[in-house]
Fold these 3 entries.
Entry 1:
Amino acid sequence: MAEFVEGTERLTGIRPAVSVFGSARAVEGSHYFALAEQTSRLLSDAGFAVISGGGPGIMRAANKGAFAGRSPAVGLNIELPREQHANEYQDISLRFEHFFARKVMFVKFATAYVVLPGGYGTLDELFEALTLVQTNKIRRMPIILMHAPFWRGLLDWFRESLVAEDMIDAEDVELVQVIDEPQKVVDAIFTFYEKRGFEPSPAEREVLLNL
């Protein structure tokens, strides 16, 4: 309960925000690291706070890019047996013991999800968002995958197995989009909200209260 209360109090004023995910194992100087850093810098300069898991790899790249920009860099840190240690690029830093409380914060304050290549944790966050949008537990938002070659097999499996065997509807595949260029990610988020604005409607706010 304390984690929910502190997280909500600390993050309420940061909207609009974008949650950025990706591997903790990506090293500085790699293509994935550079892609996350550049995208997050552009998002920050465009007025979006950037929320990451607060650790190394792509999380560090996202916070580093945002930290150099105009908007807050947020880290939602968690204690793990390995890989997780807080990076130094955080204007707002929260620490969680419980995954479920941390995951709520990623979703509750996000205007969009940007997902770079990663492992089980990254996939967990991606499918959490897809499930919540599909079931109308949160409002629809841009869910953007970066670096098409990494995601091609997964998206093909969506179509060839999940849709073909009627596990999901064909339009559910359209809940995600693949964009490889950082500026186009920013543009896509603005385009999505162009006619509706970033603030949730009263009905959407009620849904978020019950998340």
Entry 2:
Amino acid sequence: MTHDLENLFAHSGAARMRDLTPWIGERSVRGWLKQGRLVRLHPGVVALDDRRDDWLVRAHAAVLYTNGVLSHTTALVLWGAIAERPTRLHVSVPVGRGLRGGPGLVVHRRMTDERPYDISGLPVMGVDSALVDTWAFLNRRAAQPGSVQLARAAVINAVRSGRTTTRRLTDMVLTRPNIAGRSELRELLDLIAGGCQSELEIWGVRRVLSIEGLPRPHQQYRVELPGGPVSLDAALPEVKLGIELDGAAFHGDRAARERDIARDTALASLGWQILRFSYRRLTADPDGCRRDIAAAYRRRSPR
């Protein structure tokens, strides 16, 4: 009996009661619920008790209950734009559906003719729609602390990994004039399109790299080395001055540090000077960072 029960749920770990009863009878299903071998996750949807906390099982159960499409941060987890799986699942259904959410489930109603994608056997909203919807949802006044940072990180990760482009997202934002935080999203997309690949680089562009009297640095500047091309976070190529913005985890990663030392040595052999700024220095002393860049530029400038 146990083996048969596990086989019934082998695919997703969850099922509609109405889909089970023709095969095993309503009495058996209710008996398993009473024994605790099955648990009801949503009205009419049950799952194996030992898989009730499995995130993918809960996602399948949410789809079975709503007959909707996984959206917002839930879709972004499946697209790989968000690493940590939020406890609350998000599902979008057509306008007019009377479904309500519940503990751990948020139901959104939206008009769309977009066809869902299939990821791990689940219907999932497209990454562009999921990013813009997540941005709007997490930029509401009632959003929890850290929500905006999560939305920003999702956009940066999705573009950097090639899952979408700033152009595609900008085009979608143009069709959504009333979303919360629209101007901030446009600004973020412009910064990413300009070459920023992290929040640290955005900080650098805003607080450090704009220096009066100096040309604007080129972001993600490509330099050909004997071992292959490298990209500098920023560069003033007319004087062969490179600027690297090291993240907070830089000093804790010895292997990465060794690679960067080797790369800087190779660049120096071609006449480049590399200025490295730590996360702490960038955020605590942006004025000093600007002075160092300006001084190095003027020393290397033929004028």
Entry 3:
Amino acid sequence: MTILRVDHLTKTYRGGGRANDGISLDIAAGEVFGLLGPNGAGKTTLVSQVLALLVPDAGTITIDGVDAVRHPDAARRLCSFQPQAAAPVEGVSARQAIEIVGSIRGGQRGPLRARTDELLAALDLVDVADRPVRMSGGIARLTGFCMAAVVPGRLVVLDEPTNDVDPLRRRALWQQVRRLADDGAAVLLVTHNVLEAERCVDRLAIVAAGRVQAIGAPGQLKADLGAPLRLECTLDPDKPAPELPASAALSARSGRRLLAHVQLADVGDAVAWAQHAQDAHLITEFSVAAASLEDVYANWVQPEGAPA
């Protein structure tokens, strides 16, 4: 069942800057859908329109059958949202903040307390849950997630939920994101963390220059890339960069890091080239691995945010 449907959404700001240029996507119940893109790609504008905080110039947004443009209040009630900024919870404890939001969203006292306890335990927040003090960035971020998840809407929008969160709690957080979908919500995940997104999302859209550049399941997008293997090298800073073999296609170079893609049939030549370059002290190390979602992202998004 489709929970969110966005169809040909367009938004132009004063001065002619088009933040969204005909964006279309849909998210089903039980699905974690990733929205990836560089700064300025139009992700925040899209989320603001989905949450009925901003009116589009053209296009439609439907949330669980409700027209979000014509009925913004009804659409908002179907959503829960974790913004990118940390939750403003100073002066109250994490537990109080979570239960207050859950109560506002219609949670009943007994189930609400049980769900709050469950989230606090899952994210290792029990020891700090009742301290009415200023929270660290990571704790505030996790509290913000709990506020969105304690009584989730049909659509849950999470904007960079793992920012400032330590590695162990981050792993637990991704499990809770997955749990939201498994319990029937549609989850829209906005993130810059491509590698973590690959482990969590069912499908994703790569957005750049206000347009959807690619959309699909991670495996499908990697297959569409056409080169199943990545060759990554660390260049010697004191030597000129070696010329890649004809069988390798350069994908990105950033500082000392060089990334290329090769076909399976050419991997032997690529490894021989890399070993020779290492013996000549032109590179300090290299690796060959299966293509990742990061490679798909780099294929569609240039550093300045334009389509590749």
